[in-house]
Design brief:
alpha+beta, 2 domains, 9 helices, Ribosomal Protein S5, domain 2, Alpha-Beta Plaits, globular
């Protein structure tokens, strides 16, 4: 018997929603299989080479240990098979998808009933292990699916986006390396204090963004996809110039852009004209000689698991 669990990629810091708004992406996913009674660890998939074997081993050991401690369960041999399908270090929730998929598979393998809050808490420990910060926006999107307002206390609230909403991802082919870790470095770029004007600006935009998503109003979404608190200070984390981003925003059908997570991926929120939009975006990428992949993603679902005999 084996338990299989799948968790999709995610994009956090959606517009002005730093550390709160995130969306699941169906373009990529991680899948983890747990074999009770076996004893092995195998990592495969298109992005498996980005994860050193010792790191994968320590990650699995840590997560299983915390899971067993949380539910006061005895250890037993486990075989772990990881399919790494989410790009690593690109701001697409790679560590969150692995953490959520592993914890979900363990709950099924051990027959443990968990609510969203417990699952979110345990998976957030994986984020802390990998990035040094126990943020929950990506984790919440992976667990719940859709667009989420993340909260450790409330377990995450899902806002169903309009069915026509798509995300175009500009994923750089090269991932920069940060000595202090990308997430830590990205947070160090932010100001310690913000003005009341900046705070009100983001609050207003976030409110319109949520209303736009809930009502399917593209004008509200376009107005809401703007941020003064975080993104201006993180432009150095993406390989796209302000001039290129402005040209992309001028493409008809593009409602707005934002830096996905801590970058370096740039996310474009688009309306119904996906095929037309992606052709025109590719022209901007080509003219700018940008070394990136252009990926179209729908809104992903929540984590799922099943048992195979």
């Amino acid at each position: 018997m084996r338990v299989v669990s799948r968790a999709y990629a995610s994009s956090a810091n959606f517009g002005p929603g730093f550390d709160v708004f995130a969306v699941a992406l169906d373009a990529f996913y991680d899948e983890i299989c747990v074999y009770p009674g076996a004893s092995f660890l195998k990592v495969v998939g298109p992005y498996s080479r980005k994860i050193p074997g010792d790191i994968a081993k320590e990650f699995v050991k840590y997560m299983v240990s915390r899971f067993l401690d949380f539910f006061d369960l005895p250890p037993e041999p486990l075989g772990i098979y990881i399919y790494k399908g989410v790009p690593v270090g690109m701001g697409l929730g790679s560590s969150a998808s692995s953490s959520v998929a592993l914890i979900k598979a363990l709950t099924v393998a051990y027959g443990v009933d968990t609510g969203v809050r417990e699952l979110q808490y345990l998976a957030s420990l994986g984020e802390e292990f990998v990035s040094g910060s126990r943020h929950i926006d990506n984790v919440s999107a992976c667990i719940n699916g859709g667009f989420v307002i993340s909260s450790l206390e409330m377990g995450g609230v899902v806002v169903d986006p309009p069915p026509w909403l798509s995300i175009i991802l500009l994923v750089p082919r090269k991932c920069p390396v940060y000595e202090r870790g990308k997430t830590r470095f990205a947070r160090s770029l932010l100001k310690e204090c913000y003005s009341l004007e900046e705070f009100v600006y983001n609050l207003r935009r976030a409110s319109f963004l949520l209303m736009g998503l809930a009502k399917g109003n593209p004008d509200f979404i376009r107005y809401g996809l703007s941020d003064k608190l975080v993104e201006p200070f993180r432009r150095s984390m993406i390989p796209f110039s302000e001039n290129v981003i402005n040209r992309i925003k001028e493409v008809e059908g593009v409602l707005g852009t934002y830096i996905s997570g801590a970058g370096p991926t740039l996310a474009l929120v688009v309306d119904r004209r996906v095929d037309e939009v992606i052709d025109n975006v590719k022209k901007v990428v080509w003219k700018g000689a940008l070394d990136c992949d252009v990926v179209v993603s729908g809104v992903g679902g929540g984590v799922v698991s099943w048992v195979e005999e």
